[in-house]
Each structure stands twice: as structure tokens, then as C-alpha cells.
Design goal:
The complex is a heterotrimer of chains A (about 290), B (about 240) and C (about 250). By secondary structure, chain A is mainly α. Chain A has a domain of about 200 residues. Chain A is built from 11 helices and 2 strands, in the order ααααββααααααα. Chain A has a two-stranded antiparallel sheet with strand order 1-2. In chain A, α2 runs parallel beside α4, α2 crosses α9 and α3 crosses α8. The longest helix of chain A has about 30 residues. Chain A starts with a helix and ends in an 11-residue tail after the last helix. Chain B has a domain of about 160 residues: Rossmann fold, CATH 3.40.50. Chain B is built from 10 helices and 10 strands. Chain B has a 6-stranded mixed β-sheet, sandwiched between helices. In chain B, β9 and β10 form a beta hairpin. In chain B, α3 packs parallel to α6. Chain B is globular. Chain C is α/β, with parallel strands linked by helices. Chain C folds into 2 domains: about 150 residues, Rossmann fold (3-Layer(aba) Sandwich), CATH 3.40.50.300; about 80 residues, no CATH class. Chain C starts with 8 loop residues before the first strand and ends with a helix. In chain C, a hairpin with a 2-residue loop joins β1 and β2. The chains are: A mainly alpha (about 290), B alpha/beta (about 240), C alpha/beta (about 250). At the B-C interface, β2, α8 and α10 of B face α9 of C.
Chain lengths: ~290, ~240, ~250
């Protein structure tokens, strides 16, 4: 019973972090049809930047902010230089491009920060007591922060002028252009936002397991699973799917080792593709 | 104001426009008639930079449109109301209008004015302002598409078959709106298959066939001698 | 009008109705086409011409009614079964294989009719197929270009190749869907001549917007409007019919 409770908390917390990562990914895919294989590596770089800033300033929140900003700029630069020239070409080309970027980012991180694991110390110490169990505060804080950031994204999309531009461009790029919406700028901005969210996720997740160049891969993998299960381009769906899949994995980890628990995610993916390929959390298409 | 000079266009390999020359002066309503598939919509798409222009020039107020990015046309004063309307289905009516209202250089006061103006023209849009665009009827979507163009405060509206698929009552309403826009001084390039409406609304009419302009006359002339219309639009 | 015996009617459509929910795309459409005729199908936008073709070729299942091809009801059959009944269709969007040569495009179509995709013999062993393919290319005016890669052909030539591919399946009924769309005046003339040439041994249904083409080619014209048959008769009659003019000119 205790196990289940702990795993539920794990699942929820991991799910919220994953939701942040997946939100950025699904936003990028929804608007630009770009499958961003480098997404997890943007997360990884964000974590490294965060670790460095934390090392220099000792301030976790500053590190979080700095990571988001720096990686947002990096993301924008990447989009303008490598992805914008590929607009309109075969989708395979952009997949290969983002894959290439992923490799470059990983090697860069290795070169810049070396092979040893960096630490990000948690922003909030201590555990809180649930019944007779101890659970680290910072994980709860992480989940809450992730939730707040996602909520902020949702509000931004729903109410801001820019949010309308993003939604209009996602639905009908050509008509959006005809209305004077600067679509190339919108694309770059969305990529930057997605990158910033990935970077922030990296800093939030840093205290959980340390920062390494390969930490991005697991996230990219799970984020893709979740984006498909939640319905590609569907923000609400990917959030629900993130929590769903993370909970399932957490419960599976009671029975098998955590490394093997990821199989559960794949099973969900395969079942979704077989029976509800448009997404589990999407209303049945007519 | 808008001049197409000997324009050729291709869709892939298909040579769809051959030497099309059309002119719309400021404040004019010009009709573009022709049967299905003759290239009327393609002509509008060539202006909007959506068909590959392979010959000739398109200028607006003297400025060559070649090289103007697709999102720059609205800023120049060219608004497009496409054949399929292309409402942003998941955006509300108000949000659809905001895609045009939220332009640089428009003060909040002016935005309110423009919004009130289109609501006055189309009261049903005010009623449905928080409804998703996709839930509107065909006629309402057409009104929204026109309203969306109006809030761009355009110098010219490219209006593509606004009455297609609409009931006669709505067709009359569209006719009214075209008149009203004309009174306001907005130029209109009206692509249509509905002959009486076009002859009523437009001062001059171009008639296209097989990708080129075959005839050009004033509405009065065309009304007086129906043979030309019969030849190019009848059976 | 119908002084034909039903035996000579290769196609007889009876009360064909197609409804999508509340929308009636076709209502009670009936027509009879004698073997060897070129029948034109015209009508304004949304009249139901494409829907009609889709029913004929099995792409769409009608809500009710019968489509009798040589006396056999084919309504509701899937496309590959319809094709086996010797009905072929050319499409508005070309379906040619862009990477293959002109001859190969037609040969493959011909082979599908004759040899059931036998996997064990080399394609060069099927001389009858190649002969047939060459004959078709001659009919559609592409004999000189048999080794040309299909994507290198001009638009008009590609659309004629499309007709050739349909012909290679040895149909008895050929449905042409706007065969001159997007063509220049010269290309259109070439296609009209092509259709006249192949019409000798076939029955042809042609949907067109180009009035000159359809009035010049068709022996009988059926006019559709809002999913119903509005008028039917020889071109001169249709052109003189005030109701048809009304529908087109919306007066």
C-alpha cells in the first residue's frame, strides 16, 4: 500500500515534468509538422546551463530562468538556421536535420562540461509527511511548478494576441499569412517556447538524477510516445497522456525494475496505434 | 491600382494562366467571370503569391508584388476572401476577427470602431462572437470571411465566389454588402459564376476561358448584348 | 428518345440516390447509355457529377438505386471488382507512375488485365502485353515517347497517358473526368482528337466544363443540377433548352 502511494506520487511528479516536455514537442509538431528529435537534448543543455548558473550564483530560481532564456535563444537560432530553409521539403529531411542537431548538441555538451555528472541541488530541502511516509518537498514543488508553467502556456495560447496567431497558423497557415500574420516569426517563436519549456524541465528534473549528456534521450523517447498517445498536436491530450503513462510506469516499477518499466509505455503506444491512432484522449473522429 | 500584366502561371507542370492582363482601379468593382476551371481562382492565387508566376508582372500601386512575402500583402492593403472561406474553425468568431484586428499600428480605439462596424454590417456575428467558427452555417461563415477582410481596412478585396452554395436570400445579402463596400471606396475584384449579380455589382467585367482573358467590357455593354455571356458562360 | 432495345444499353442507371446524412448529393438519377455512344455529363458546380462517377466506379456506395452494366447490377461493388467488369476511369489528378517510362506505365496496366500478376515469368515474356501497350500508345499519340520517363512529359501528354493507362485495361466503358482540365487550347484539341479516335470501339462517359469540347464530342448530353437530371438530349437540343441556360447563367 505504501509502495503504491509512493509510486503514485512518483508517477504524478514525473508525469508533470514529462507533460512540460511533451507540451513543447506537440506545440512544435502541431504548428510546423516538425518532429523534433533534438527536443530532449535541449532539455539536457538547459540542465547543464542551469547547473552552471547555479554553481556561480547559488540561486536555483535564477538558474531556472537563465536556462529557459538561453535555450530559447538557442532554439530560435537553430530553427532559423537549420529548419527554416527546409520548410516545404520532404518531412524526412527535417527529421534527419533534427536528429543531426541532437548529435551535435550532445557532443557539444560533452566538450563543454566534460563527462562527469553535474549536480543540481534541490531548491527546497526536507520531506513532507504523508500519513507515515516521507516524500521530498522539492519533488512536490517541481510538480506544482510544472503545472503552473503549463497553465501559463495554456493561458498564453488562449488569450494573448500571439496565442491567437499561433493557433491560427496551426489551423491554416496560408490563410494566416493572408491575414498578415508573420508566419516565419511565429514558427521561430514557437520553437523558442518549446525549447524554453524543455530547458526548464531539465532544470526541474536535475535534482532527481543528476545532469549528463545522455539524459535527453529518455525524455525524447517518452515525449514522443506521449505525443502520439495524446493525439499529435493536441496539447490537453499530451498532458493527460503524460500523467497516464508516467503513472503506469511508476506502478509497473513496483513489479519490475524501473529500467524495464518503460516497456509499459511502449505497450500503450502500440495499443494506441492499433486501436485509436488519432490519440487516446482525442474525441473519436467522424 | 492593381495591375496584372501578361501574367503566366503554373501549378507544377500544368500551365494554368496564359498572358492574363487585368486592371482594377482604386474604388472600382471589377468582375471576373467564366465557367468552372477556366482559371479565375488561379488568377486570385497568382496575386496572393500562391500560384507559381512564370511570366508577366503583378503590381499594386506601382509596386511589383514579386518578392513580397505572403504575409506582407495584407499590410499593403490587399485582402483575400477565398472560395472555401477558410474560417479558422477552432477560433471563435471574435478571435477570427482579431487575426485581422491585431495588426501593428491599430490603436485599441480604432479596433473597437472596426469591430463595431462589422457587427453593424453583420449583427449575427456579434451574436455569435464567442462561438467557434466551425459551428457557423455556410452563410454565416461567408459573412465572417468578409468581415475578417474588412477589419484589415483594405484598399482592395479579392472576393472569390462569395455566393457559391448560398441560398437566394443570402445571395441578395451578399449583393448588398458588395454595394456597401463599394460606397465606402473599397475596390473589389469579384470572381463569380453568378452572372446577374456580377453585372449588377461591377462596372467592368473580364471574361476568362481556358486560362486566359477572352473578353473585356462594361457591364452595360454585356447587359445590352447577351450573346457574349451566352457564349462564354452558357451551354 | 429510347428506341433502343435494352440489350444494346451497356449502361442503365435506375433511380440512383446518394445521401450523406441530410444532404442529398444525387436524387433519383436515371439514364441509359447505348453501347458505342459518347455521353457527356454536364452541370454547374455541386450538381453531382463527381458523385455520379464515384458511384459508377465503386468509390462510393449509393444509398439506393441500381447501376446495370451489361444487365448486371454493379452498384456498391468495390473499385477493383468494378474494374474487372471492364469499366475504367481517368482521374482529374493524374495517377501515372512518374518514375517509370511511358511504355511501362501502359504495360503494367495491360498486364493487370491479362495475366493476373504472375510473378514467375519475366515481363519481357509477355509479348502480347507489350504489343497491346504499343497499340494503346499509338492511339493516344504517345508512340514516339514510349521510352520517355513519365514525369518528363508535358501536362497535356501526362493526361493523355492517363487515358492510355485506362485504355490498356481493355474497358468496355471509359469514364473520363475533366480530361482537358488545365490544358492549353492546342493540348485540348489534341485530346479531343484522341477521344474521337478511341471512341470507335468503346462507350465513353465524359464529364467536362469546357462546353466546346463536350458539345463537339458527345452524341447525347445529360445535364445534372442539384443532384437531379435536368435535361437530356443531343447537344443542339441542350443548347437551345432555356432551363439549362437558366441554370448556367443563373438568370
Amino acid at each position: 500500500m505504501d509502495q503504491i502511494l509512493i509510486q503514485t506520487l512518483h508517477g504524478l511528479v514525473n508525469g508533470m515534468v514529462l507533460a512540460m516536455v511533451a507540451s513543447g514537442l506537440t506545440l512544435i509538431f502541431g504548428i510546423m509538422d516538425i518532429v523534433n528529435f533534438a527536443h530532449g537534448d535541449l532539455l539536457m543543455l538547459g540542465a547543464f546551463v542551469g547547473a552552471s548558473v547555479l554553481g556561480v550564483t547559488g540561486n536555483y530560481w535564477l538558474a531556472l530562468l537563465a536556462a529557459a532564456v538561453v535555450i530559447a535563444v538557442l532554439g530560435a537560432a537553430l530553427q532559423v538556421t537549420t529548419l527554416r530553409p527546409l520548410i516545404g521539403r520532404d518531412p524526412l529531411t527535417t527529421i534527419l536535420a533534427t536528429f543531426g542537431v541532437s548529435l551535435v548538441l550532445q557532443k557539444y555538451a560533452l566538450w563543454q562540461w566534460g563527462p562527469s555528472v553535474r549536480q543540481i541541488s534541490e531548491p527546497v530541502r526536507g520531506d513532507f509527511t504523508l500519513f507515515h511516509l516521507q516524500y521530498p518537498w522539492y519533488r512536490i514543488v517541481t510538480a506544482i511548478l510544472a503545472g503552473l508553467i503549463i497553465a501559463a502556456l495554456w493561458l498564453f495560447l488562449k488569450y494573448g494576441k500571439f496565442g491567437i496567431w499561433i493557433r491560427a497558423t496551426t489551423q491554416d497557415r496560408v490563410m494566416a499569412q493572408a491575414m498578415g500574420i508573420p508566419v516565419p516569426l511565429v514558427y521561430t517563436a514557437v520553437f523558442a517556447i518549446g525549447s524554453a519549456m524543455a530547458a526548464a524541465s531539465g532544470v526541474l528534473f536535475g535534482p532527481f538524477a543528476g545532469v549528463t549528456q545522455t539524459m535527453g534521450f529518455d525524455f525524447t523517447l517518452r515525449a514522443f510516445i506521449v505525443v502520439v498517445v495524446g493525439g499529435m498536436g493536441n496539447l490537453g491530450g499530451s498532458i493527460l497522456a503524460s500523467i497516464f503513462v508516467s503513472l503506469l510506469e511508476a506502478y509497473a516499477a513496483i513489479v519490475v525494475s524501473p529500467a524495464q518499466a518503460v516497456i509499459v509505455s511502449f505497450i500503450v503506444l502500440v495499443l494506441t496505434m492499433l486501436f485509436r491512432p488519432t490519440g487516446l484522449f482525442v474525441p473519436t473522429p467522424k | 491600382m492593381l495591375v496584372l500584366d501578361n501574367v503566366d502561371a503554373h501549378y507544377g507542370k500544368s500551365h494554368v494562366l496564359h498572358g492574363v492582363s487585368i486592371e482594377v482601379r482604386a474604388g472600382e468593382v471589377v468582375g471576373l467571370l467564366g465557367r468552372n476551371g477556366v482559371g479565375k481562382t488561379t488568377t486570385l492565387k497568382a496575386i496572393m503569391g500562391m500560384a507559381r508566376r512564370t511570366g508577366g508582372r503583378i503590381t499594386f500601386e506601382g509596386r511589383d508584388l514579386h518578392g513580397v512575402p505572403p504575409h506582407g500583402l495584407a499590410g499593403l492593403g490587399i485582402a483575400w476572401v477565398p472560395e472555401e472561406r477558410r474560417i479558422f474553425r477552432l477560433l471563435t468568431v471574435l478571435e477570427n476577427l482579431r487575426t485581422g484586428l491585431d495588426r501593428p499600428g491599430v490603436t485599441p480605439a480604432r479596433r473597437e470602431e472596426l469591430l463595431e462596424k462589422v457587427y453593424a454590417y453583420f449583427p449575427i456575428l456579434k451574436e455569435r462572437r464567442n462561438q467557434a467558427g466551425g459551428t457557423l452555417s455556410g452563410g454565416e461563415q461567408q459573412m465572417l470571411a468578409i468581415a475578417r477582410a474588412m477589419v484589415l481596412e483594405p484598399k482592395i478585396i479579392l472576393l472569390d465566389e462569395p455566393t457559391e452554395g448560398l441560398m437566394p436570400r443570402m445571395v441578395a445579402q451578399i449583393q448588398e454588402i458588395v454595394h456597401a463596400l463599394h460606397r465606402e471606396g473599397v475596390a473589389i475584384l469579384l470572381v463569380e459564376q453568378n452572372v446577374p449579380l456580377t453585372l449588377d455589382a461591377a462596372g467592368r467585367v473580364y471574361i476568362m476561358e481556358k486560362g486566359t482573358v477572352r473578353h473585356h467590357a462594361s457591364s452595360a455593354e454585356l447587359r445590352a448584348d447577351q450573346r457574349v455571356i451566352h457564349e462564354y458562360l452558357g451551354v | 428518345m429510347s428506341t433502343l432495345t435494352s440489350a444494346a444499353q451497356i449502361l442503365k442507371v435506375e433511380a440512383l440516390t446518394v445521401r450523406f446524412g441530410g444532404l442529398a448529393a444525387l436524387t433519383n438519377v436515371s439514364l441509359a447509355v447505348p453501347a458505342g455512344e459518347i455521353r457527356g455529363i454536364i452541370g454547374p458546380n455541386g450538381a453531382g457529377k463527381s458523385t455520379f462517377f464515384n458511384c459508377l466506379t465503386g468509390v462510393l456506395r449509393p444509398t439506393s438505386g441500381r447501376i446495370l452494366f451489361n444487365g448486371e447490377n454493379i452498384a456498391g461493388l468495390p473499385p477493383h471488382r468494378v474494374s474487372r467488369k471492364a469499366i475504367a476511369r481517368s482521374y482529374q489528378i493524374t495517377n501515372i507512375l512518374p518514375g517509370a517510362t511511358v511504355l511501362e506505365n501502359v504495360r503494367i496496366a495491360s498486364q493487370s488485365r491479362r495475366h493476373n500478376w504472375s510473378m514467375l515469368r519475366h515481363h519481357r515474356a509477355f509479348t502480347d502485353v507489350i504489343d497491346r501497350a504499343r497499340a494503346v500508345l499509338a492511339d493516344v499519340g504517345l508512340a514516339q515517347k514510349e521510352d520517355e520517363i513519365a514525369s518528363n512529359l508535358s501536362h497535356g501528354e501526362q493526361r493523355n497517358l492517363e487515358i492510355g493507362i485506362a485504355l490498356a485495361t481493355e474497358p468496355k466503358l471509359l469514364c473520363l473526368d475533366e480530361p482537358t482540365a488545365g490544358m492549353s487550347v492546342t493540348e485540348t484539341q489534341a485530346t479531343v482528337e484522341l477521344i474521337r479516335r478511341i471512341a470507335r470501339d468503346l462507350t465513353i462517359l465524359i464529364v467536362e466544363h469546357d462546353m466546346e469540347v463536350v458539345m463537339g464530342l458527345a452524341q447525347t448530353i445529360t445535364v445534372l443540377n442539384y443532384g437531379e437530371v435536368l435535361a437530356e438530349g443531343p447537344p443542339a437540343e441542350i443548347q437551345a433548352n432555356p432551363r439549362v441556360q437558366e441554370v448556367y447563367l443563373k438568370t
